[in-house]
Amino acid sequence: xxxxxxxxxxxxxxxxxxxxxxxxxxxxxxxxxxxxxxxxxxxxxxxxxxxxxxxxxxxxxxxxxxxxxxxxxxxxxxxxxxxxxxxxxxxxxxxxxxxxxxxxxxxxxxxxxxxxxxxxxxxxxxxxxxxxxxxxxxxxxxxxxxxxxxxxxxxxxxxxxxxxxxxxxxxxxxxxxxxxxxxxxxxxxxxxxxxxxxxxxxxxxxxxxxxxxxxxxxxxx
Length: 221
Ligand code: HEM
Prior knowledge:
By secondary structure, this protein is an all-alpha fold. It has 10 helices and no strands. It has helices at 10-31, 35-66, 70-77, 79-103, 113-131, 135-138, 143-166, 168-172, 177-208, 215-219. Bound molecules: protoporphyrin IX containing FE (HEM).
């Protein structure tokens, strides 16, 4: 009997999300008569699709610890493909940024190296996380280095999303406080989830090796 399931996961999920991001961008371009404004809207829309995908990958394992159910376990199982879909969505963000630069020649001169710095650092991490999610590359890294890179990368990208939304609150409206607040909630979920995972591991270690209990426990009468 075949063990293959027909669930929507793996590369099928990746291609579905990638197609949705492309369809959304094409629709925005088709519906807006001003090409430069349309491209700017694609930049914004892909930043938002990336944000949703990033959040799902960012909280997946913590959510599965705090609220274990089929959905959260599914998120963990598909985390790699959700992460790659986020990288794809942000690749479209980058493509739209360069196209906007062509359509609006004042765009790049209006920006400085400093204003481009967080985004550039973000793209370096997105590229590193994406390539190291393939076994052919990740096998060259130790498990500790891989984990360190992915932890630092995810937190850096979260910080850049936070900055991007926060800096728009005074200039573009208080509505940008909503995604900023959602990000803060995701940070809280991730921290509490990681803390719960560490506690679980500690408990499991103590159970499997009772001699390694705390010194206080050994000293008690
Ligand atoms: C050098 C690289 C980057 C450049 C030049 C850039 C440029 C832009 C531009 C021009 C906009 C639209 C501004 C507007 O019309 O209001 C935008 C929006 C945005 N970008 Fe990027 N970006 C870069 C990288 C990134 C990265 C790495 C992230 C996240 C990790 C990011 C997240 C966002 C967000 C959250 C928005 C706001 C979307 C909204 O309006 O809801 N960007 N970016």
